[in-house]
Amino acid sequence: MENKILGLHHITAIAGDPQRNHHFYTRILGLRMVKKTVNFDDPQTYHLYYADEVGTPGTLLTFFPWPGVKQGRTGTGMATEIGYSVPLGSLDFWKRRFEENEISHQHIGERFGEKFLLFRDPDGLLLSLVETKHQDNRIGWVTNEISSDVSIKGFHSVTLTLGNIKETAEVLTGVFGYTQVEKDGNIYRHKTDHTENAAIVDLLESPGAPRGINAGGTNHHVAFRVKDEQVLMAFREKVQAKGLHITEKIDRKYFFSLYFREPGGVLFEIATDHPGMAVDEPVEKLGTSLKLPEQYEPMRDRIEAVLPELEVEV
Length: 314
What we know:
The protein is α+β, with helices and mostly antiparallel strands.
């Protein structure tokens, strides 16, 4: 079996107030919250997952919301923009929606021959909606206010900002199998041909720019997708052969993971497709109750007492 990276699996960011975060991503953007759990390394903090109906890899944006967290700073050594794919002709709808809801956004622009709309979430996280060149047949989550002809389909791309892209590009091409396909100014587009969607990593080269500060409104890590644990461990060997430190396999309940920091400073994760979001609750009930890993189940009462109240609208 050929070992392949299948594009982006999930992206994780840091937020402040969990209720505000939930409202923005489910009500304003129309994503489905498919998992309400805790940070496995800090169980007094939520870990919230937003995606399509079933939490398909390549659609998963997740958050650690820490109330009162200090504001971070985007800069080199981190992911600085998350791109979502939307249907052709839908950006006018989204621009009006952002205006009506007083969401910080820019004018519709064009990059790599694709129209896009930059905007920020309430914590300042930078995102974009992109009308893609190729046909994206993924089905977005539909709400009372957001129909299928405008709904967000899943990731289009992620942008990494770096002082120098050389060594990061070598990891993407030499280890992960990406290819540089286009260049626009100081943005170098890399793409894998092993998946149709969530296949793009843009490297923004910004020499002399300050390092990012990882806190509220910034991205924590970027996870790349593999089929199963066998492929996961094959990539562990590849990363080690590159001379980079990588963790042992970690069970995250919904996927198995490895973590390493690439030479430019961005925290990368490699994650499996399985077991998936429905391992502990049926698809129709995803995200409606607090799910804990087995090691924290005996502490449920204490954890629930500490976590902020989160009203989940279904």
